[in-house]
From TrEMBL:
It comes from the Bacteria. InterPro entries: Leucine_aapep/pepB, Macro_dom-like, Peptidase_M17_C, Peptidase_M17_N_1. GO terms for biological process: proteolysis. This is Leucyl aminopeptidase family protein. The lineage of its organism: Bacteria, Pseudomonadati, Pseudomonadota, Alphaproteobacteria, Rhodobacterales. Residues 308-315 form the Cytosol aminopeptidase domain. Keywords: Aminopeptidase, Hydrolase, Manganese, Protease. Belongs to the peptidase M17 family. GO terms for cellular component: cytoplasm. It holds the Pfam family Peptidase_M17. GO terms for molecular function: manganese ion binding; metalloaminopeptidase activity. SUPFAM superfamilies: Macro domain-like, Zn-dependent exopeptidases.
Length: 461
């Protein structure tokens, strides 16, 4: 699926954005018939509201979309995107006083409102097209939309059709498209190459575990992304109940988001050296599944007591992070659908993140609202370190008690980043539970746009 702007044309219909407090001024500038039409329809410019203005022959001559008020816009990201499905077929050009991030949000929302996951059931796409307005970097927004499409498609695909093999294929497709290199370590070779925890988590599945290692760029600062690629999570021997297992096709949302972000970076040709690591596994139940009480020796040499086989994501990430840390990149970022505790803390809309460097955290917080990608900082709180130290081993993968579950998981991962000075971890949800403008129910990227927006400052580009 390609989400792009329409070519410029002289026949494009004007599409005017009007705020709630600007209706009177807008109406005053219309012809008498159009002014009467607006008043007759009681148009109040609610966020995403649409009114088509007819010409003398009754065909659409123009359209107006409501911007609502500041409160409505703050409560509903991409609110104007709902208008796209309501507009009749045609090509439109924006007429608005919006500039900068506000205009970018409208345009990106328009693109994303065209997304449909139709692999298994056809869904009608909106027939209204938009010419990129002046002042908008159309190529950048199209690259961001394409990365988001990749992320959503991967998350939405059920595990029967997206296991470690298919996740590797998606990475290889990306490498081929952008002339990146890729290396994959699979099955028992994981043991030989010292990735014991990735192997332990994935060995029970019929689809072999693997570590995907993609590299792109030959000069500039170094950025390493690590994405959790658990293609389905049964919980292992600590089997999840059915209600908790229903959405586990999305447990590779961290991998999907980092792949989408990598696509954005490469499409925009950012002057960096990018590395993407994805431990891709399925956490299955079989005779050789890893067990509660097992003690695993990680790539880092740290021992880990398995107190819950359903806390497997941090195990596979740990080996990948240890590998990433050996190169000491300028910035190391992990993304994972890691804990239910993060959802309890901030809900599905916000992407909580942790940062070892205050300036990195400040940059992400500043960037997120500019691109309508909300994030929220949580702390690497050292007071909780004893909770992940079981005594019988160096680390506990599932501390008892249930308190601060997202923080203790982040602290666990941080133990495997000892040489890199700057580490950021995102504990994302990766799923839109109810339909919203430009975000249908299903897989969704979180944190990628905020990180992309912050990268020039983070890496001094």
């Amino acid at each position: 699926m390609s989400l792009t702007f329409a070519p410029a044309t002289d026949d494009a219909l004007p599409l005017t954005l009007v705020a709630k407090d600007g209706v009177d001024t807008f109406v005053a500038g219309l012809s008498k018939p159009h002014a009467a039409w607006v008043e007759a329809h009681g148009f109040k410019a609610g966020l995403g509201a649409v009114l088509v203005l007819p010409g003398a022959d009754g065909a659409p001559e123009a359209a107006v979309v409501g911007l609502g008020d500041a409160k409505a816009r703050a409560r509903r990201r991409f609110g104007t995107a709902a208008a796209r499905a309501k507009l009749p077929a045609g090509t439109y050009r924006l007429e608005t006083d919006l500039t900068g991030p506000a205009l970018d949000e409208v345009c990106l929302g328009w693109l994303l409102a065209g997304y449909r996951f139709d692999r298994y059931a056809k869904k009608p796409a909106p027939k209204a097209a938009l010419v990129a307005p002046q002042g908008v970097d159309a190529a950048r927004l199209e690259a961001i939309a394409a990365g988001e499409v990749l992320t959503r498609d991967l998350i939405n695909t059920p595990a029967q059709d997206l296991g470690p093999d298919e996740l590797e294929a998606a990475a290889r497709d990306l490498a081929d498209r952008f002339a990146a290199t890729i290396d994959v370590t699979t099955g028992d070779d994981l043991i030989a190459q010292n990735f014991p925890m990735i192997h332990a988590v994935g060995r029970a599945a019929t689809r072999a575990p693997r570590l995907i290692d993609l590299r792109w760029g030959t000069s500039g600062p170094t950025l390493t992304l690590v994405g959790k690629g658990v293609c389905f999570d049964t919980g292992g021997l600590d089997l999840k109940p059915a209600p908790s297992m229903g959405l586990m096709k999305k447990d590779m949302g961290g991998a999907a988001t980092t792949l989408g972000l990598a696509r954005m970076i490469m499409a925009l040709d950012l002057p960096i050296q990018l590395r993407l690591l994805i431990p891709a596994v399925e956490n299955a139940v079989a005779g050789d599944a890893f067990r509660p009480g097992d003690i695993l020796i990680s790539r880092k040499g740290l021992t880990v007591e398995v107190n819950n086989t359903d806390a497997e994501g941090r195990l596979v990430l740990a080996d990948a992070l240890a590998l990433a840390d050996e190169e000491m990149p300028d910035l190391l970022v992990s993304m994972a659908t890691l804990t239910g505790a993060a959802r309890v803390a901030v809900g599905p809309d916000l992407a909580p993140f942790y940062a070892t460097d205050k300036m990195d955290a400040d940059a992400l917080r500043a960037a997120a609202p500019r691109v309508a990608d909300p994030v929220w900082e949580l702390p690497f709180w050292p007071g909780y370190e004893p909770m992940i130290e079981p005594g019988i081993a160096d680390l506990d993968n599932a501390p008892k008690g249930g308190f601060a579950g997202s923080i203790t998981a982040a602290l666990f991962l941080k133990r495997f980043v000892t040489d890199s000075e700057r580490y950021v971890h995102f504990d994302i949800f990766g799923w839109q539970p109810s339909a919203a403008p430009a975000r249908p129910v299903g897989g969704v990227g979180q944190g990628a746009r905020a990180l992309l927006e912050a990268l020039p400052g983070l890496l001094k580009l």
